[in-house]
């Protein structure tokens, strides 16, 4: 960090910057804390509930960091799954996996697919649909400078991969 400050023409020894390298290191430790965790742990406790209809948790906020520019991107994740064999997971667990997966140098597409695959595999769901909507600071504050531009990614597995009507119903609920 000290070298970066010097490279942009700053004096890293001036009062306001003396502790900046240490603060930045602590910040990166926090925002990359997902590198050292296994988000699957949150899906190991399931409950027996004879429910086989859609479960949708929408607009889960997340913050991540673009691995290409190391600047933030942020938005929301909506997750729908179809329980199978009477097994459901606590709703907060879906938010927890989003939190942990997003706390890594990342791309939005990977968050989307990782969440979908993890839920499908760990819960043995009949179907999963993940909808991620985010604003990327690498497009807002640098480069093309287009604030407000939103990127949407989706992943459909199982029942939702093959069923246009089910996906449309879900998209109407999410939006």
UniProtKB/TrEMBL annotation:
<keyword id="KW-0378">Hydrolase</keyword>
<dbReference type="GO" id="GO:0006729">
    <property type="term" value="P:tetrahydrobiopterin biosynthetic process"/>
</dbReference>
<feature type="domain" description="GTP cyclohydrolase I">
    <location>
        <begin position="2"/>
        <end position="174"/>
    </location>
</feature>
<feature type="binding site">
    <location>
        <position position="69"/>
    </location>
    <ligand>
        <name>Zn(2+)</name>
    </ligand>
</feature>
<dbReference type="GO" id="GO:0005737">
    <property type="term" value="C:cytoplasm"/>
</dbReference>
<keyword id="KW-0554">One-carbon metabolism</keyword>
<comment type="pathway">
    <text>Cofactor biosynthesis; 7,8-dihydroneopterin triphosphate biosynthesis; 7,8-dihydroneopterin triphosphate from GTP: step 1/1.</text>
</comment>
<feature type="binding site">
    <location>
        <position position="66"/>
    </location>
    <ligand>
        <name>Zn(2+)</name>
    </ligand>
</feature>
<keyword id="KW-0862">Zinc</keyword>
<dbReference type="GO" id="GO:0006730">
    <property type="term" value="P:one-carbon metabolic process"/>
</dbReference>
<dbReference type="InterPro" id="IPR043133">
    <property type="entry name" value="GTP-CH-I_C/QueF"/>
</dbReference>
<dbReference type="InterPro" id="IPR043134">
    <property type="entry name" value="GTP-CH-I_N"/>
</dbReference>
<dbReference type="InterPro" id="IPR020602">
    <property type="entry name" value="GTP_CycHdrlase_I_dom"/>
</dbReference>
<protein>
    <recommendedName>
        <fullName>GTP cyclohydrolase 1</fullName>
        <ecNumber>3.5.4.16</ecNumber>
    </recommendedName>
</protein>
<dbReference type="Pfam" id="PF01227">
    <property type="entry name" value="GTP_cyclohydroI"/>
</dbReference>
<feature type="binding site">
    <location>
        <position position="138"/>
    </location>
    <ligand>
        <name>Zn(2+)</name>
    </ligand>
</feature>
<dbReference type="GO" id="GO:0003934">
    <property type="term" value="F:GTP cyclohydrolase I activity"/>
</dbReference>
<dbReference type="GO" id="GO:0008270">
    <property type="term" value="F:zinc ion binding"/>
</dbReference>
<comment type="similarity">
    <text>Belongs to the GTP cyclohydrolase I family.</text>
</comment>
<keyword id="KW-0342">GTP-binding</keyword>
<keyword id="KW-0479">Metal-binding</keyword>
<dbReference type="GO" id="GO:0005525">
    <property type="term" value="F:GTP binding"/>
</dbReference>
<comment type="subunit">
    <text>Homopolymer.</text>
</comment>
<keyword id="KW-0547">Nucleotide-binding</keyword>
<dbReference type="InterPro" id="IPR018234">
    <property type="entry name" value="GTP_CycHdrlase_I_CS"/>
</dbReference>
<dbReference type="GO" id="GO:0046654">
    <property type="term" value="P:tetrahydrofolate biosynthetic process"/>
</dbReference>
<dbReference type="InterPro" id="IPR001474">
    <property type="entry name" value="GTP_CycHdrlase_I"/>
</dbReference>
């Amino acid at each position: 960090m000290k070298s970066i400050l010097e490279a942009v023409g700053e004096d890293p020894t001036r009062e306001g910057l003396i502790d900046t390298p240490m603060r930045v290191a602590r910040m990166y430790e926090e925002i990359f804390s997902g590198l050292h965790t296994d988000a699957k742990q949150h899906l190991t406790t399931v409950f027996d509930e004879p429910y086989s209809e859609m479960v949708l948790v929408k607009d889960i906020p997340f913050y991540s960091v673009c691995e290409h520019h190391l600047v933030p991107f942020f938005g929301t994740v909506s997750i729908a799954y179809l329980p199978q064999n009477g097994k459901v997971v606590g709703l907060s667990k879906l938010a927890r996996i989003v939190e942990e997966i997003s706390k890594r140098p990342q791309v939005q597409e990977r968050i989307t697919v990782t969440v979908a695959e993890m839920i499908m595999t760990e819960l043995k769901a009949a179907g999963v649909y993940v909808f991620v909507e985010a604003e990327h600071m690498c497009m807002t504050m640098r480069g093309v400078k287009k604030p407000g531009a939103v990127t949407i990614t989706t992943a459909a597995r199982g029942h939702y991969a093959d069923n246009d009507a089910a996906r449309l119903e879900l998209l109407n609920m999410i939006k």
